[in-house]
User: Fold these one by one.
Assistant:
Number 1:
Amino acid sequence: MTNTLVVKKFEKLLGKDNVLSEKEDCYPYAFDVVEQGLDVKIPDIVVLPETKEQVQEIVKFASKEGIPIVARGAGTNQAGSCIPVKNGIVMHFSKMNKIISIDENNLNCTVQPGVIVGQIQSEVEKRGLFFPPDPSNLAVSTIGGAIAQSASGSRHFKYGGTRDYVIDLEVVTSDGEIIHTSSKTPKNVAGYNLTQLFVGSEGTLGIITEATLKLIPKPESRRVMLAFFDDLKDSAMAVESIIRHRLQPSVIDMMDDKTIYTIEEFSKSGIFKPAEACLIIEVDGTQASVDDQMTRISAVCQEHHVSEIKVAQNQSETDKIWFARRQAFSAVTRLNFDVVAEDLVVPTDRLVDMVHKIQELSLKYNIIIAIMGHSGDGNLHPHFSLDLRDQDQKQRFELAEREMLDYATSLGGTITGEHGVGTVKRAHMHLVNEEPNLRFMRMIKNIFDPKNIFNPDKIL
Ligand SMILES: Cc1cc2nc3c(=O)[nH]c(=O)nc-3n(C[C@H](O)[C@H](O)[C@H](O)COP(=O)(O)OP(=O)(O)OC[C@H]3O[C@@H](n4cnc5c(N)ncnc54)[C@H](O)[C@@H]3O)c2cc1C
């Protein structure tokens, strides 16, 4: 596709600096976080639009010529969602990175897709407002990627995920038209919920050029504790029990001994001590309710044989805990050549069974599996630590993964809670979707993108 005329056309539209066409410049865009071996498709051209009108023009051209377009934020998704599978165009949003407005009266903000999630949080927090969705890599993840991936994170337990905070999207459709999926009002039921069709669509239905997000008041106070256990299953039982006691921390994250060891090695925080399991529990609200919840949650942990509870005494300790937790994926990558981060969900009252099964599979297939996750939501990220160049390990991993996902679905769970489908979970879609569901999904894709130019061969 990259002939000189096309490059010149895009350079005229976007400026020379916003078009990459040399193979070595385009090569990094053939990858995201997921290991793909050597069979990568290098995009023919990478474009960095600065305006929605430029996006429109590129889409119109691609649509006319039948050229695939893969939208890209920070490239940090864990599902192979933004790797090109057919060369074509990668549209990188690093230059559409402005917060357009923060409407303090109407509790919303409007942003371009390339704004970093953590930046939105810190800007609104300066005004006493709060944008809760917190993927662990919020320091780099773009909001466009988080919306397209329907990312969530630790605070989902109390606050929900990105999907719950998207009010309206501006989208460039496959024929280059600009649509708004809703209004900027907090409520709007005038028609089908187009907004939620685009949330989690992984760039397969259209290109998001602007998003209006819901904000809420920032909680007055916040406190985090670490609860250490000598038995992973006790920690899972404590999670179930906290929920049964109608307590509502903002976060209940779980880490096993391997995760604790690697993040302490990595972060040198001095806060995490060796234990078979640790729960990170954060509570927020008024000062009085925070104190009350902390006391009651500690009592529940005692019922489940907690070995030690450490409460962060100041902001610096809180920051150290969250820094370490957010480095968990990077820390585990140091254990072996590859790491595969799973993303299953089970009903929270089956968490103990799921944790037990993962431990069993680790022994059965002789693979290190570090367990971490947003346990309050039943969302576990077992991290397989292995060397995928070794065919025997690769085969054992595939068997263990399949057995793990089969078990999660047999408990009434699902194959992905927040990372998405992309290329890595496509083969498992039938485990949680019956044929009529898949048929409707294919029809939706076909209506929005009849020429299959938007991120082809993902999800379905
Ligand atoms: C260390 C680490 C920790 C993580 N922790 C969490 C976590 O706690 N919770 C969680 O949910 N996820 C987590 N993730 C994965 C998370 O989904 C992604 O990291 C992130 O939200 C995607 O943002 P991105 O900017 O990197 O998007 P990319 O990876 O660049 O793209 C993601 C998808 O969005 C599409 N896209 C991007 N921009 C647009 C646009 N403007 N219009 C249409 N489609 C677009 C892409 O085509 C792709 O399909 C983690 C990832 C890492 C590496």
Note: Residues 4-92 form a domain with the Uridine Diphospho-n-acetylenolpyruvylglucosamine Reductase; domain 2 fold (CATH 3.30.43.10).
Number 2:
Amino acid sequence: MTASNFDFVESAVAPGPGQALVENLYLSLDPTNRIWMTDVEQYMPPVQIGEVMRGLGIGKVIESNNHLYKVGALVSGPVGWQDYCLIDGQESWPFAVLPPLPPGVPLTLFMGAAGMTGLTAYFGLLEVGQAKAGETLLVSAAAGATGSVVGQIGKIKGLRVVGIAGGAEKCRLLTDYFGFDVAVDYKASDWKAQLEAATEGGVDISFENVGGEIMNAAIARLNMRSRMVLCGLISSYNDDNDANTRANLVPFLMKRASLQGFIVSDYFPKFAAATSELVSWVMAGKIKTKETLVDGLEQAPAALNQLFEGNNVGKLLVKLRP
Ligand SMILES: NC(=O)c1ccc[n+]([C@@H]2O[C@H](COP(=O)([O-])OP(=O)(O)OC[C@H]3O[C@@H](n4cnc5c(N)ncnc54)[C@H](OP(=O)(O)O)[C@@H]3O)[C@@H](O)[C@H]2O)c1
């Protein structure tokens, strides 16, 4: 992505009947932004050329003609890549009014560990993966926003957790900060041997964020009746990497294993309860967070590339206001 893929346009904005005007504060940068920019078959309509780029974020209501959104309320939802947005409660990804923030809880938590990526970790591991104490969990892109929370929920639930990440520094973070049991550096030449040693007894749940060669290596470690949770395939969003059309299916048959894809929005009705549980885990110190923050909307196109280059640690966000 480069700035040349985007136009910066200014126009006047005022709330009509039933609408509220929101001053956007933080924008979440997500791998799915890249999916929305393509015309592959996907779970939402792709963003059309000329439309405001879709993006989740947090903002503050500054004018309102809608009783659901009081002036001063903090809201999270599809604010778009813009400084202000209009909302009317009819959006396909509903806006949520944030609960009062407990002291010491930063607003950005509701974009990360208690936001969309934390919820993805929560429902992917607990509902799709059916995690059980004593099992071995393998997580790819483990030092990122979703993966870091998956691993920590795994520890809360009594699993043995192995993370895969790129580089020694991220691997140290996994074990020393996020509390994973073992980390595998997929950028090291011996990473497959590292993975075999780290999963000596096999893998009961594989939380897949990457796809391609990493996914095939994980498939080879699956245990009898194991579950592969297909959360994402980031290795193919940005190019024509066709490795994801060649997954090794044989172990699924031989091991009676399952492979299930999911999209976090499948769980909308359960978001509020899961969010409070995630906040309580963060406040109790059971989930630790990291953020990578960039300043200003004009940085968003270039910053999105950090996700594909592995330059982010934890949740990648744009701070829209000083
Ligand atoms: N299904 C859903 O509803 C849902 C919701 C949210 C996110 N997701 C998926 O979850 C995954 C993680 O998303 P996130 O927002 O939490 O991003 P993230 O993990 O914070 O950032 C992406 C990370 O992926 C790794 N990566 C990128 N390209 C790679 C490649 N070719 N090979 C290996 N690793 C690569 C990089 O870490 P390294 O430095 O370790 O390479 C990078 O930091 C994505 O696949 C995303 O699409 C799915």
Note: Residues 69 and 178 are 36 Å apart (CA to CA).
